[in-house]
Structures are given as structure tokens and as C-alpha cells.
């Protein structure tokens, strides 16, 4: 049974949320907030915050903790998607846009060019962009495409510890994800790198400590730690619900391992309050000392 602090209090939709839902429908756009049943959706929509989900509604791989449907090939890309995202960004007067996607192994460059087109379009309109990217099957050419579009933050989620990949991320590789983060760090010592991990699926503190140390070694700027919540009855059960005190302990552990900015709480997700978290990296860099959330 979920502890009380994990029971979401539904908030009535305000005019911002209703407006966002209307715009998404009008311009045929999706958000990960909706498709992944994010626990923060109501709060974020009410605050005119959202994370766009590009490359279609289906994924070519399957993670155990995700509810997005899996098929071998999604419909063709919607080439109006970049322009429609820009339209919504302008209508809502968004000062920061987060873009993520399904994994599309069936597309040329795995959809990296579509990410880059959206990023360039938004940046040309003076809108900062954070990209939460898939692993692109470890293709360095895709990394180059992403890097050259100059996003403000590059995020890639490792999701869990190496020992649980065979159970929860069978189509993925921890080493491949770490190599991606390593590539961007070696390419640019100043690029802001971010990753996220879910807990409560069978990991140990020793597992987490090893991962935090690896992330520090590759100079990851931001780590998000959140509670795994079973999205449907077909997904794996929660092994452990971490207490609020335990989340604070995980935050302190990651900070002691050397990661500068750590967000650790039950509902923490990779793009939650992304703009304010990014600004903490800037503060940390200017002060030369770690910033605790």
C-alpha cells in the first residue's frame, strides 16, 4: 500500500491547464506528462509547464517501468511538429522548453535530426531548450547532430542501476548510456549534463553509490532521483517505497559523491521544474560550490 505522502491530491484544472490541453489537441502534439502518467502533470499544466513528446506516440523498445505502447514502427513523422511546438511556445509565452521522445530505432539517425530541427527553431526564437534524448543506439553521428543544435541542457536518463537492466531495460545498456554522457562531456567541458534514476525497484544502497560515483567521474551536473510508481497493472510491482527521510539520505549521498546539483524526492522526474533546476547549475558554477536543493 502506498504511504500517504505518495497519494496524489488531484487539483482542479485552472485556465492554464485547460488552455494547454486545448492547444495540444488543436496542433496534434503530445506531452510525456500525459503519456507517461507523470504524477506532476496537474501541477505543471496549471503552471503552464510541459514537456513535449516528439517522434510519435509509440516506442520501438520497452522499459518495464513505462506505460508507453511499443510497436516496431510508428507512423511517419509529423514534419509540422517543430513549427507547432514553436506556435504553442509563443502562445503560452514559454521561457524554457523541454523536448523528449519515444525511442525510434526505425528512423534515420533514430530521429536525432528531428530533435535538432526543433532545437534550432526554438533557439532562433530566443527560447532556451532542454533535450531529454534516447541513446540513439550509441551512434556518435547522432550525438554530433544533437550537439550542433546547441541545446541549453542535454539530458539522458540512466533510469536504474546496472544490475536491474536485464529486468527493467532489456533493450538498453547501462554502458551505452554512460558512454553517451561521456561523449558529450569530452566534447564540451561546459555543456550542462543531466540524468535521472528511479528507485524502489530492487536496487541497493551499494548499487546506487557506485552509480553516483560513475556519474561524478563523468562530471554530470544534475541528478534527479525519484520513486518508481507502477503505472499500470502490467508493469512490475514496486519493491520498496522510500520514505522522505530516505530520499534526503540519497540526496546527501549523491552530493557527497561529488554531484553538484541533486533533486531527490518521491515525485521528482527528469523534466520537473527543469528551468529552475538548470538555473541552480549556473549559480553553482558561479559560486564554485555545491548547491543543495
Please write out the topology.
Layout lengths: L14 H12 L3 E2 H4 L5 H6 L4 E4 L26 H11 L5 E5 L10 H13 L4 E4 L7 H9 L4 E3 L9 H4 L5 H14 L4 E8 L5 H13 L4 E6 L16 H13 L4 E4 L9 H14 L3 E2 L1
Parallel strand pairs: 2-3, 3-4, 4-5, 5-6, 6-7, 7-8, 8-9
Antiparallel strand pairs: 1-2
Features:
293 residues, alpha/beta, 11 helices, 9 strands, 39% helix
**Average pLDDT for all residues:** 88
- Structural class comes to alpha/beta
Q: Report the uncertain regions.
A: 289-293
Count of runs of 4 or more consecutive helical residues: 11
User: How far is the first residue's CA from the last residue's CA?
Assistant: 28 Å
**Silhouette:** globular
**How many β-strand stretches?**
9
SSE sequence, one letter per element: HEHHEHEHEHEHHEHEHEHE
Q: Please describe the biggest sheet, giving its number of strands, its sense, and whether it closes into a barrel.
A: 9 strands, mixed
Global Rg: 18 Å
Could you estimate the helical fraction of the residues in percent? 25-40%
In percent terms, what proportion of residues is strand? Answer: 5-15%
Main sheet strand line-up:
1-2-3-4-5-6-7-8-9
What does this structure look like?
The chain has 293 residues and is of the alpha/beta class. It contains eleven helices and nine strands. A nine-stranded mixed sheet has the order 1-2-3-4-5-6-7-8-9, sandwiched between helices. The chain is globular, with a radius of gyration of 18 Å. The protein starts with 14 loop residues before the first helix and ends with a strand. Mean pLDDT is 88; it is low at 289-293.
Summarize the structure.
This protein is an alpha/beta fold and 293 residues long. It is built from eleven helices and nine strands.
